[in-house]
Amino acid sequence: MISIAIVQALLFDDAAPAACAKKPDPVACLIDARYAKDDRAKHLAADLYKHSGDIAGVGADEQMNGGFRGKIHLVPELPIGAYRKHLTWVLAATDSIDKFFTDVMDGKQPAYRWRDLAFKFVRSVGKHTPSAYAGIDPNGAWAIEYNVEGSLLKSEAGVRETLVHELFHINDESHHDWSQTALAKDYAAIVKKCGTRSSCLAPYAPNDTKVLATGTYYAFQPNNGNTVHEYAAELAVRYFKEQTEVLAHGKLGQRAFKCGPAENARAWQALVDEFFAGVDHVPTC
């Protein structure tokens, strides 16, 4: 559960209404107060909290070094009015992720967290990147910075995939930078072999997301922080997609990721064992 101090900071910074502290559910009171100008958004934010313990607040005004994206100015943007649709999509996505773990895990407990998240809504000024980024903030909150102008956040499906990707980053961090230890050697070998050539990288790319400006698979885009982190997060997205498809249809419509090059199989098994309790419904190759 997110602490009341973090909830206050997310919703009001230093100006939280004192009266909420005396209410039976001070968090619900704070949500109602912050979203008072938009009744529909207020109910969505309240449902997000009820369903998964997540809080929809705002991020900081900051100048971000976006790597290959350049400098980006982010400003706080509560998801109300024209931006209310993002709350609708986030609620649907988090409900879907919660259902995924119920359906897929066969009663096993994964070493994975997907609830009690701090959503920090922001708007990029004059740009549409980044769509989101995530981490454990100085207060200890598992936080996802969500850009209401993000280029990937144009539909429920786009939001769901982005949140799966970002959620993995925080889990990776909480597992002591697992991807750097477990995947970096094979990842470096792939990059040495292929560079950014999509034709060479295609068999190794866990997901089909590409950077529009360069045409490079996002998992292998240079100047994007520690890029093995992005490869690992895209691998998690592929896990979610393949498990969902197999459970829904009994088979995959394309070759399983683990059935590609040997590097794929090693990365896949390491991910499944570390985070998902060894559960893999995809048939053997």
Work out the helix count: 9
Task: Tell me roughly what share of residues is in helical segments.
Answer: 40-55%
By DSSP, the count of extended strands is 6
Largest sheet: 6 strands, mixed
Shape: globular
Q: What is the CATH domain class of the largest domain?
A: Alpha Beta
For the record, give the distance between the C-alpha atoms at the N and C termini, rounded to a whole number: 41 Å
Describe this structure in words.
This protein has nine helices and six strands; from the N terminus they run H-H-H-E-E-E-H-E-E-E-H-H-H-H-H. It has 285 residues and is of the alpha/beta class. It has two domains: 4-174, Collagenase (Catalytic Domain), CATH 3.40.390; 178-275, no CATH class. Strands 1, 2, 3, 4, 5 and 6 form a six-stranded mixed sheet that branches. Helix 1 runs parallel beside helix 2 and helix 4 (84-104) crosses helix 5.
Map the helices and strands:
Elements: H1 4-12, H2 26-34, H3 39-52, E1 55-58, E2 62-65, E3 71-76, H4 84-104, E4 118-124, E5 132-136, E6 142-147, H5 156-174, H6 178-194, H7 198-201, H8 227-249, H9 262-275
Parallel strand pairs: 1-4, 4-6
Antiparallel strand pairs: 2-3, 3-4, 5-6
Helix pairs in contact: 1-2, 2-3, 3-4, 4-5, 5-8, 6-8, 8-9
Summary tags:
285 residues; alpha/beta; Collagenase (Catalytic Domain); 6 strands; 11% strand; globular
